Amino acid sequence: MLQRVRRSLIFIVVFTICAPLASGAVVHGTTYEWSTFEALKNTIVEVDSTPPQFLVASSGSYSFNLPEGTYTIRAEYYQGNLLEYYAEENITILGDGDFVLDLLMFPPIEDAFLCENINLSEDLYDYEEPDKIDSEENFPVFQVATTIFFILIAGYAAFLWRGRKLRESTATDTPVSRGAARHEPPEPKMRPEIEPAIKPEPAPKYNETKARGPAKSTVSEESDLPPDLKEVIQVIKDNDGRITQKELRTQLKYSEAKVSLMITDLEDQGIVKKVKKGRGNTIILKGM
């Protein structure tokens, strides 16, 4: 009989502890390094549940089953025996569900840098305000501004009075009668134009053909050409003096840009003629 009672009590206790965990929410996330945002592997993650839970996130991801309540999730990353990164976040769970809480890991702050020994209340009450500066005694702004204002008014009045005196003196010194005639300077006399006795002969018309000189020869001597241009001419001759630029390119060992430059050179010298035909060009050797 006693054994049955013990078993029932043990079952009730275990059910009471495990039931909230089974019906709680799932909290999961990933721990990241603050500067590179890369997942930190082998991070120790702990939550202050009842009983406390902790795990080692080998890939940087963690997951806890928690009932309703407010919890603190703490993550620590060690390199050797030295704490490198640390993160702590609070979370409140209301009802069942799936909660995602990613942790951004920062380097730990040393206690020496914390302002724990500063009593703000005492410092504020002990602060003594400096003596107020008497603006009227040390820097009389109002008096200076009033003085400058009166100086400007006096200067403007003196300027107007001086201008009035100048206008009156000018009017009395140079009187002009109504009937006085204006003195106008005489107009300069124009010299009569003298027609030339001998009319100049018209200049001879400029002969453009003579000025240009003899026309440039359209065909250069092949002996004066470089070997690569001679090779182009020979290929055109072998094709009865007419070939497309695409076929000429396939029969030469030069690049397409080089062949185009050589054709342009021969065309400038008047040796070949390039005719546009469809999408391509036809090269014609002159003199054949």
Using brief descriptors, characterize the structure shown.
single chain; four-stranded mixed β-sheet; alpha+beta; 35% helix; 11 strands; Arc Repressor Mutant, subunit A; Immunoglobulin-like; four-stranded antiparallel β-sheet; 288 residues
List the helices and strands and how they pair.
Blueprint: H1 2-22, E1 25-33, E2 43-47, E3 53-57, E4 61-66, E5 69-79, E6 82-93, E7 98-100, E8 103-105, H2 120-126, H3 135-138, H4 141-173, H5 208-212, H6 227-238, E9 242-244, H7 245-250, H8 256-268, E10 272-277, E11 280-285
Parallel strand pairs: 1-7, 1-8
Antiparallel strand pairs: 1-4, 2-3, 2-5, 5-6, 9-11, 10-11
Give a written overview of the molecule:
- Helices cover 35% and strands 24% of the residues.
- It is α+β, with helices and mostly antiparallel strands and 288 residues long.
- The N and C termini lie far apart (129 Å).
- Strands 1, 4, 7 and 8 form a four-stranded mixed sheet that branches. It has a four-stranded antiparallel sheet with strand order 3-2-5-6, with no helix packed on it. The chain has a three-stranded antiparallel sheet with strand order 9-11-10.
